[in-house]
Amino acid sequence: MADFVGKAAGLSISRRNFIKASAAAAASLSLAGCSNSLSTVGVDAALDNGEKWVSSACWHNCGGRCVNKALVKDGMVIRQKTDDTHPDSPEYPQHRACLRGRSQQQDVLGVDRIKYPLKRKNWQPGGGDKSLRGRDEWERISWDEALDYVAAEIKKAKENYGPQSIMSFARTGWTRNVLYAYGGTTTHWDTTSYGSYRFPWEKIGMGQYDNYSVNDRFDLKNSDTVILVGGNSAWSAPGLYSYFFLQAKKAGAEFISVGPNYNAIAATLDARWIPVHAGTDTAFLLAVAHTLIAEDDPVSNPLIDWDCLNRCTLGFDAEHMPEGAKLKENFKDYVLGEYDGVPKTAAWASKICGTPVEDILFYARKIRKDNKVAMYHDYAPARCIGAEDFPHIFATIGFMTGHMGKPGHACGNIHKEQVNAGPALVKAGGSGLPKISNPVKDCINSPGLWKSILDGKYLYTGSFQWLPGEWKDIDIRVLYTEDKAVLQGLPAMTHGIEVHRKVDFVVTQAFNYNTQAKYSDIILPVTTQWERPGMVMTRDKEAVLVYSQVIEPLYEAKSDQWIAVELAKRLGIDVEQVFPIDEKQQFFNQIAGCTVISEDGKSYSPLVTITADDIAKWEVKGEPQSGKIGLQELIDRGVYQVERHEGDNYGYYAYEDFIKDPENHPLTSPSGKFEIYSDWKADTLNNTGIANMTFKPYPSYTVAPECYEATFSDWENQVKGEYPYVVTNPHYLRRTHCNQDNVPWLREACHNPVFLNRQDAEKKGIKTGDAVLIWNAHGKTLRQASVSDTTMPGIVELPHGRWIDMDEKTGIDRAGTDNILCGPVASNMGVSGYNNYTCDFKKYDGEPLIPDHLIPAQTAKVL
Ligand code: SF4
């Protein structure tokens, strides 16, 4: 089998050509997924005998959804391409892959694949030498041995300490369902991607993080101004998302980018940059509100849409308060400083945000009610400590200026629906697997997860429920990770490593030797999505992506479901209860259940034509049906996409009906209006016990424990403290979250430096390429510097997801791991504050750093 990988590597696209293509794509647009120069249609004509393109998954969930295809010959992958199912056009755009999708073959066929079940050399039932987790060698064991060990440790933990002593980490949850059926496990809740957007804001009348908070993509060209707050779609989820922005640019829209850096999407769109320190967006927007209030004159200078405010909201001013409001305060008077003596002026915010006063004034005047403005934000600003009220103030500004419910006007979050909101035009069917519920209610908030396990107690607030807090004891003995990389991906990694060296047993299912696998006792090798029957993927509302099995399972890898079934047998669980159908049937069910919208936009019908022959060939259960595309054609194409055109029936404007007629189309709040003032919000958050502050019913500014203000020891006199910088962790083009860090082409194309502001670097004598030590109270890490003016002064940008390489003697991570600098500090809402921890940095004079692409991939040392 080792020859298989070598042969595949030899037959694949050359490294040089890949790097050249990546560089060309990046240079042309800074958007590896969007360049028209990469468009090809009809490549299949050049196929040799025996070669076949198979639609292949890019499964790491960057937020985008792209068509990837693998050329298979003699059972191995020799090349990849992206969407060439039809010519590219704005109406009917291709779903082009970025360099991460295009290098997926190096991930699947990487030297870091776990080839067979592994046992840590110094592990013994009960733990063995636990301190060696993360640096031990490995021994090959059989599947039977591995599964017997795992089952025995799970049984022991449950019998001795109860099922809540088992902590499971899973996104999809095959094994987790078995563990639920066995008595349950402790879980964790995390606002991860969505930050403070995870709070149920629909209860005050706004879109949460669903597909309905902004307008259909065709409306982008109606905006005169498009404002992007936070986020960088050119890196995080390149593809259609950024392509739609380019269409708006072509149509003449001006772009404004707000955030701590002038990033790739801002540069691509030639946006005006408004710099704002990470985590201070609420202060920035309060000053925008102040400017609107101070400068508005309905006759001579109409900035505020009073009609929208008065008809559609509650709590803006004393005349529009909800009945029975507990606090005799309103948003407008708070902004004007009536309660705390601090008017939230541009000068006030400038000190906090680092934003020039004229930029704040510019923003407020630009979003005047008569300008057609789309205000979009990504989730990065919501993933900060101190971002609790960011969604609330963002929507409040939208209602103040009336940028809701009309062509050209929009205000909301855009990452999930990729700036293309509205009902899905094509939907996937369900797999048919039953939902197994978890009898254990223990559920720990992620920022404090590792510390809670170390301390043996945690604050229970439900799972995404923000219930009144209750301190509970917890005694975790087993960590079972199924399809996540929690040690690498959660904050407080230093504590995470301690936990991994404390508990009795750590088992991980993984296809490669990632950080989670490295710190385990037993590694169970799983297949990748390229080695499984297939799946239907959704997110873009106009398409379903269907990917199929590309190659046979490599080495001794097994699917998650196979592992779960084998474990279920050993735990005495009725397999039929958890897995009544096999993986192929699940894939078939997803396809058969696909539905597509009718041309009038009013109803849905089956998408796929399935014949009795298809059912017989697939050897599955099902009924013949009639649809718009044949089963085999869909599998071959890998995508079904609804073609759009101007004036079709699929347009959508968020809040349209409500803005026109709020009485007959109420929002989801108790009053039916958008509640700028909400006692429910304040009471819910104040009762959790998470907060060490008191929430107001309206959006307000609070000083967070780790934030820009915390970089000063004396804020009033502007004296800097021990950690004078704020570190953020942008999603980087080289990885999707914590995935693909070992991929050689990606390492060579994207060097993963720490991005520093020129003035900050010069003060410390640092230039591009120098090794830099970055540290704070939570950890220390090293990276080569990239110095420029595109990072704000005071900000350190450390890309997210680099796999840790801890020097145990010095306690310094040599890899540039972002989460080693994140501590166990939850925002007052329980949000992980990935983007605003305080830190310091200096030139590193220790052992020189080797560029990542010259370091051998991280692999398990098997004896
Ligand atoms: S990583 Fe995201 S943008 Fe890139 S190919 Fe995969 S799905 Fe598309």
UniProtKB/TrEMBL annotation:
Keywords: Iron, Iron-sulfur, Metal-binding, Molybdenum, Oxidoreductase, Signal. GO terms for biological process: anaerobic respiration. Pfam families: Molybdop_Fe4S4 (PF04879), Molybdopterin (PF00384), Molydop_binding (PF01568), TAT_signal (PF10518). Residues 51-112 form the 4Fe-4S Mo/W bis-MGD-type domain. Its EC number is 1.8.5.3. GO terms for cellular component: outer membrane-bounded periplasmic space. One of its GO terms (molecular function) is molybdenum ion binding. Its cofactor is Mo-bis(molybdopterin guanine dinucleotide). SUPFAM superfamilies: ADC-like, Formate dehydrogenase/DMSO reductase, domains 1-3. Belongs to the prokaryotic molybdopterin-containing oxidoreductase family. This is Dimethyl sulfoxide reductase DmsA.
